[in-house]
Structure formats: C-alpha cells, structure tokens
Amino acid sequence: xxxxxxxxxxxxxxxxxxxxxxxxxxxxxxxxxxxxxxxxxxxxxxxxxxxxxxxxxxxxxxxxxxxxxxxxxxxxxxxxxxxxxxxxxxxxxxxxxxxxxxxxxxxxxxxxxxxxxxxxxxxxxxxxxxxxxxxxxxxxxxxxxxxxxxxxxxxxxxxxxxxxxxxxxxxxxxxxxxxxxxxxxxxxxxxxxxxxxxxxxxxxxxxxxxxxxxxxxxxxxxxxxxxxxxxxxxxxxxxxxxxxxxxxxxxxxxxxxxxxxxxxxxxxxxxxxxxxxxxxxxxxxxxxxxxxxxxxxxxxxxxxxxxxxxxxxxxxxxxxxxxxxxxxxxxxxxxxxxxxxxxxxxxxxxxxxxxxxxxxxxxxxxxxxxxxxxxxxxxxxxxxxxxxxxxxxxxxxxxxxxxxxxxxxxxxxxxxxxxxxxxxxxxxxxxxxxxxxxxxxxxxxxxxxxxxxxxxxxxxxxxxxxxxxxxxxxxxxxxxxxxxxxxxxxxxxxxxxxxxxxxxxxxxxxxxxxxxxxxxxxxxxxxxxxxxxxxxxxxxxxxxxxxxxxxxxxxxxxxxxxxxxxxxxxxxxxxxxxxxxxxxxxxxxxxxxxxxxxxxxxxxxxxxxxxxxxxxxxxxxxxxxxxxxxxxxxxxxxxxxxxxxxxxxxxxxxxxxxxxxxxxxxxxxxxxxxxxxxxxxxxxxxxxxxxxxxxxxxxxxxxxxxxxxxxxxxxxxxxxxxxxxxxxxxxxxxxxxxxxxxxxxxxxxxxxxxxxxxxxxxxxxxxxxxxxxxxxxxxxxxxxxxxxxxxxxxxxxxxxxxxxxxxxxxxxxxxxxxxxxxxxxxxxxxxxxxxxxxxxxxxxxxxxxxxxxxxxxxxxxxxxxxxxxxxxxxxxxxxxxxx
Length: 883
What we know:
This protein is 53% helix and 16% strand. The chain contains 27 helices and 26 strands. α24 (789-801) packs antiparallel against α25 (805-821).
C-alpha cells in the first residue's frame, strides 16, 4: 500500500512538474508574442505620427499653393486698376497731341475728374509746363517717360507718381503725370478688397515700404511688426517672391490663425495680405482624416501580412542571392569570352610564320623523308593549335550572335575527301583503324554551308579519335530524301573508345566541360568542340544524337537537312579514297599565272616573305610594299591584278589606306580587288572589312590553299593557267632545303655550335623552331632582322623624340614579335613591356598615365642597347655576316 502511494505521489509530482513546465513555456510564448505585438504597435504609432506630420506638411504646402494662386488673381485685378489709370492718362495725352486743348485747361480737366489727385505737364527736359511741378528727385522718372515708357514710382513725402509720354508732330514733346499723395493713398484710393479678406497692402518691391495700407493698418494692428516697423512676414514673403511671382506662407511663428500671401504687381509693386487659415484647410480636412484612417488600416494589414510572409521573404532573399550569383557568373563568362577572342591576334601572328615557313619546307624538301617527316609533325602540331584558336573564336561568335551561315552549292565528295585525309592521318598516328562507309546513292551536289558542314563532322570525328586508345573509328554517311525534295544527310561517328558514363551525359554539351578528367587528363582540347557543334547543327535546323556504353564506345550521329540543286549519286567513294591514299603526293600548286601581278602590303618583311614563298611555284609576279603610303605610290604608278592589304600598320593602317586609294584620281587600280589581311579574326571582323569597302577578307595565318583559291577567284581568267599543262611546256626548277649541320659537323668545321651555352641574347633553338625547323630559313630571317636594326632603331628614336606614342607602341609591338621569332626572348620581353606601357598610356586611366610614360622613358635606351647586343652576338657567333 505504501509502495502504491509512493508511485502515485511520484506520478503526481511528475505530472505537476510537466504542467508547470508547459505553463512556463506557454507564458514565455505569450510574453514573446505580446512583446512583439507592443513593439510592432509602437512602431506603427511612430510611423503613424511621422506620416501625420508629413501629411500635415504636405497639406500646408498644398494650401499655400492654392492661396498663392488666389493672391496672383487679386494682384492681376489690381494690376488692371493701374493699367486703367495709365489708360486714362494716355487719353489725356491723345487730346494734347491733337492740339485742341491748351496744357493749362487739360491740367484743370484732369484735376476736376480726380479730386485730390495733383496733375501736371512737363517738357522732355523735365521743366514744368502746367500744373503742379515735380521735385528734382523725379527727374529720372520723367526722363524715362520722355524716352517713351509709362512709369510708376513712389517717393517718400510726395506719394505715388504716374507718368506717361505725349506726342506732337510725330515726336515726344511732353510728359503728363499724376501725383497720388500719401493722404489719398491711405484713405481709400487703390485699396484692395477680395474674397480673401480686406487685410491687403500694396508695398514697394525694392524698399518694402507700405504704399497703400488697408484701413487701420499701423501700430497696434495685429499684422504690424513693432520690432521691424513693417508688416508681419514681409521679409519671408519677399524672399519667396524672388523666385516666384506669387507665394503664400503659413507659419505659427508669424501668426497661428492667418497665412501671409504676396504677389507681384507691375511697375515694381507687390501685393501683401493676410487670410484666415482654418476655413481654407477645413475644405479638405475630411479628406485628410480619411487618408489617415486608410493609412492606419493599411499599416495594420501590412503588419499581419508581414508576420505571415516572413518565411516567404527568407526564400525570396535566397532567390535574390542565387540570381545575383548567376549574374556574376554571366559577367565572368562574358569577360572570359571577350578575353579569349581578343587573344587571337597575339597567337595568330607567330603562328602565321610557323605555318607559312613549314609549308615552304614541305614543298622544297623533295625526297628527303626525314625533313618531310619533321615538317609534317610541325604542320600537325600547328594545325592542332589553329584548331583550338578557331574553336575559341567560333564560341565567341556564337555567344555574341554573330555566327552566320553562308550557303552555296558544293560537292559532298570534295568535303568527304578532305575529312577522310585529315582523320585518316590522325587515326593512323594513334595506331587506330579508320574506316569510311558511304552509301553510293548519296547525292554529291548539295546546297548549304560547306564550311560548317565540314566543321561539325570533323568535330565529332576528332572526339572519336581523341578518346579512342585502341580499336577503330568508323565514319558512315547516309541519306534520306524528304517530301520537299531536300536531302536529310546522316553523318555517324562510331568508335571503340572509353564511352560516356550515364551520369555525365547531361554535361556532354556544356561549355569548357571535360568529362572523366582522371582518365582524360592527357587529352588536349578546350572542351568547346561539342558545344560549338550542337549550336551549329541547331543553326542548320539539324539534330545531334548520342548513344554510348561506358568502356565500349560511342555513336555520334548528325542529321542535317540540305537542299539539292540536282541529283547526282556520289558512287563508290571508298574505292576512290583508297586509290587516293595509294597515289598521295606532296604539295602541288593548283594553278600558275606567270603574267599576273599582285601587290602585297604588310609592315612586316617576314610576312611578305611568307606570302612570296607560298606563291613561288604559281609564278605570280609579286610586288612588295611595307607601308600604306608606299602602297598608294605604287598604285599611282602601276596597275596590279589583285592587292592584299594588311590591316594593322603604323602611321596609316589598312582602312585609311583603302579610303585614300579610293579617293585617288591618278590611281591605276580603281577597279582592282583589294583584299584585307589581318590576324584579328574575332567575331564580326569580316562584316566590318566588307562594310569598309574591301573586296574580301583573308585571315592570318595565311593558308596556302585559301590564298590560291582567293587568287583564282579574283585574278583575270585569261591569266590563270592549269599547272599540269604549264609543266609540260616548262620545267619548274626545285631546290631541296639542306639539313642543318649536326653538332659534330659544326665542331669539325671549326664553327661554334648555334646552341652554344654561352649564348645570352640569341636563342637559336627558339629561332629555328619559329622558322619551321629550317636552319637555312632561320639564317635568312636573322640576316634580314639584323640588317633592319638601324632602320627600326631610327624609327623608334623618331617616335620617342617626337612623343608620338601611338606609332611608338605600334613599332615596338612589331619589334616584340619579330625578335621573339628570331630567338631574342630577352629583347622581346623588354619590347613587350614597352608595348604594354604604351597601350596603358593611350587607353588606360588618367591617374596611371604619368607612371606608364615614365616607364617608357626609363627603359627605351635599355631596349635599344639590347637590340645592339643581339646583333653583335649574332655576328660574333657567325650566324650573320658582319657589315
């Protein structure tokens, strides 16, 4: 029994403890709720108080505006009164002009019509003619009226004087005037009364003196300021009238029950009065109260809504943060795209020399298999680099919306031939079996953008070769005729590579995205290829489908609708491709034109040399020019068939040169095609050159095939001959490029090896690399570079001395590029620093310009000495002949 009682007491104690805890929690919750309620109520009261004060202020302001408008109306009425008085004076002047009334009689008539008002007539010199004479102080007013102006002025002790000119025989001969003395002004003359009340004064605008008081105004009056001896609020209302023709003020400091108002009257007079404030405010007071009640109700509803929407606001805040983060990511992405696109010029300039020189090595290597092998390796690496640059530029164009499709009729067999040759070489280098299967019924003649079709197909095949380590890559081409007569082309790439994991399929077409980095870390690429491919396929109204099994391979298939001008089956393409592989040879020029003459304009002699050698076997006669002015001089003296004009040149760039060429009257090249050359292959540049008036556009690095195609398009047809037929008539002499001597041969001949370790300024290894791996070509370029030292230094010295920093930056940019390609990395680095300082001075913020200019002045001589040291070392080491 005791145990049961113990358990019962324990349960009771626990229950009481739980109850006390629940009550305590309830109390805390209620206290928190009440506290929040009172805090919110206090905030509402404070806000309501602020709103009420603000509404009162706005109400007072609105009422002041209303009273000011009424005051302006009263002033207008009073102004018309003064105008009537002047009109009456003008009528007397007309009677005098008519000559029918003598002056004395006219003065008497004026005095009789207005008892208490003194009248008179004076001549143009202010001398009295009849009536009451005027004191000396009024002479200025009489002179103004004698000049033709009606005038109204107030004078202490005299009163208000109104004067008007009178004519005789077409000239002003007299001045008529009336004098309203202080007594008549204070009695009732000109007194103002309106629905605003009778407490209205007329004051002088300049002195503030009361001219026309209302009855009873003076000491002891409610609106008379004993301390200032003037009407109350006169100073405040005059201040407001300085910026407005009418104003009103309600201020308890002036009067708690009345508002003071004022308005300008003509002739430097102002009207000042007082009106009761409450009757005016009472008209809209109920609206004021209604607005306040509505505001209180809105505040209460807003408070309830705030309590319920607190969680939603937190989510909105999180969403705002996400949106801001997205905007920041978009801005970073845009900056990235612009940076990548603008880098094209710096990358393409040295690449132009590498590809051009290497192409010449391939043409002149003859049967020397080792040199041809080296050259093919250089070509492969350079083309890979160019492909990466092109991907970046295409990505920039697509993002900016400037990618355009250029459709024309093309041969599918030609496209497939180029793709087959390119991909077979890449696949064989990796030990892969490259197969091509083309449906023999596929149409050969199609209408579309040949360049973009080739690009998207090469992209999926490139991916297949890159991500396949062993096995094969199969390229299939099929088609299906559509109801509208077009062809739905099907290009498939089937590989035995690593495949794609299912969870990575969603990231497959993302920009700059590389999948399975652990396995693919050694594979080159930007991660842009498939993103660009997807966008291009979509632009051509096509579709890209992917199927893949991780570890076994992938199948990429592109469906592209292409128009057919006429149907012609492609036939057995595989047999033709295999025959081509067996008969494959080195480079062969596509045409010869020994009678054709072209002009190539570029400020870099190395670029000119590249073009000359790329076209050497075409037998075209090439004239060189190294500036815009030299180009114009040559155009004036000789006619060329085609002109290639570089864009970026000092002093006169390509666009300015073209404008001057078109304006030349003595030019012999008026209708000659002018083609732009530039390394700035960024979005929209082609459209810009065509808009400026160029016939066409060719980007650097100059591709030999593109160059020949452009010449075949624009040279006169009668001057373009078939290369094979021309060979039968005249043999073309070919010289093989000698291999560079080995280190042992150099030592045996007593010459210092070119990679001598004591070399400080000249890195021959780098120079030979930029010359396509040819020592002979490097020596030619190095000799040209050293011979031009004095001219380059003189040019830079002239720019430096004349502070022509724009041309200085352009010239030092050229020195940077050419010295690096000659192996002068130290000289190139100093020139680059000067170039960057020049750009910063020309285009940077104002506060940094002095510092950039100081850097140029401090390091110019050092760079010139480095140029001297480079040439001296090249001569000392026997790389070039000493002068």
